[in-house]
């Protein structure tokens, strides 16, 4: 059972639509028990870190995510769903869920650099077949995750600076970009993630 976590924030409709297009039945839930019964979990998200963490905690979903990770089953975090997994953010000095060591940083104020980073951008130095080198995906973000352990970065991209476009820690895959908004490339990523052994 593929479960999509609904904590009142995020691009739930577009993720569900993409999965339905691939023939995947997805359960959208705010129930921690359903999360723990899942074979695969997706944590989407757009918006502010502090508010998102508060929404997760109010529903008991923060603990469910931690316990689910201990089960070593596939987990996909998208955009804010990626950033939430880290310890803290420069966005209002908010704390994250702390499942991965690292800080979520804001793009620097630099002449000619538009923030938020919005649009298509290519992946570089990918170490996963799931993330083909030079494939472009759609990004919308002002902050990016900087893992304390750089070896967790599964693919990079650039917007004024080089940043982690995707992170992998065992069965946990986190993407700063939005697969569900990335056309054929995003659908292919989701298809392959859904068919990986869990």
Structural notes for this entry:
This protein has 198 residues and is α/β, with parallel strands linked by helices. It has a single domain, classed as Class I glutamine amidotransferase (GATase) domain (Rossmann fold), CATH 3.40.50.880. 27% of the residues lie in helices and 32% in strands. The protein has 6 helices and 12 strands. It has a 7-stranded mixed beta sheet. A 3-stranded mixed beta sheet has the order 5-6-9, with no helix packed on it. Strands 7-8 form a two-stranded antiparallel ribbon. It is globular, with a radius of gyration of 15 Å.
Return the average pLDDT rounded to an integer: 95
The CATH architecture classification is 3-Layer(aba) Sandwich
Return the structural class.
Answer: alpha/beta
Order of helical and strand elements: EHEHEHHEHEEEEEEEEH
User: What percent strand?
Assistant: 25-35%
CATH H-level homologous superfamily name = Class I glutamine amidotransferase (GATase) domain
Q: Which tags fit this structure?
A:
198 residues; alpha/beta; Rossmann fold; 7-stranded mixed sheet; 6 helices; 12 strands
Question: What's the SSE blueprint?
Answer:
Blueprint (H helix, E strand, L loop, with lengths): L1 E4 L6 H10 L4 E4 L2 H6 L2 E4 L5 H10 L2 H10 L4 E4 L1 H4 L2 E4 L10 E7 L10 E6 L13 E6 L1 E5 L5 E7 L1 E9 L2 E4 L7 H13 L3
Parallel strand pairs: 1-2, 1-3, 3-4, 4-12, 5-6
Antiparallel strand pairs: 6-9, 7-8, 10-11, 11-12
């Amino acid at each position: 059972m593929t479960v999509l976590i609904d904590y009142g924030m995020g691009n739930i409709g577009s993720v569900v639509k993409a999965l339905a297009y691939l023939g995947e039945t997805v359960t959208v839930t705010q129930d921690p028990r359903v999360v723990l019964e899942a074979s695969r979990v997706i944590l989407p998200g757009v918006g502010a870190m502090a508010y998102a963490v508060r929404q997760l905690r109010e529903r008991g979903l923060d603990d469910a995510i931690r316990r689910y990770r201990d089960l070593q089953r596939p987990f996909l975090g998208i955009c804010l769903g990626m950033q939430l997994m880290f310890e803290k953010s420069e966005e209002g000095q908010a704390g994250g869920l702390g499942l991965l060591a690292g800080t979520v940083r804001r793009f620097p104020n630099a002449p000619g650099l538009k923030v938020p980073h919005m649009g298509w951008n290519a992946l570089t130095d990918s170490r996963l077949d799931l993330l083909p080198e030079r494939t472009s995906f759609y990004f919308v973000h002002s902050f990016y995750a900087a893992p304390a352990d750089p070896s967790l970065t599964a693919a990079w991209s650039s917007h004024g600076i080089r940043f982690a476009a995707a992170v992998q820690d065992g069965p946990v895959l986190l993407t700063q970009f939005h697969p569900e908004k990335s056309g054929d490339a995003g659908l292919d990523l989701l298809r392959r993630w859904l068919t990986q052994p869990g």
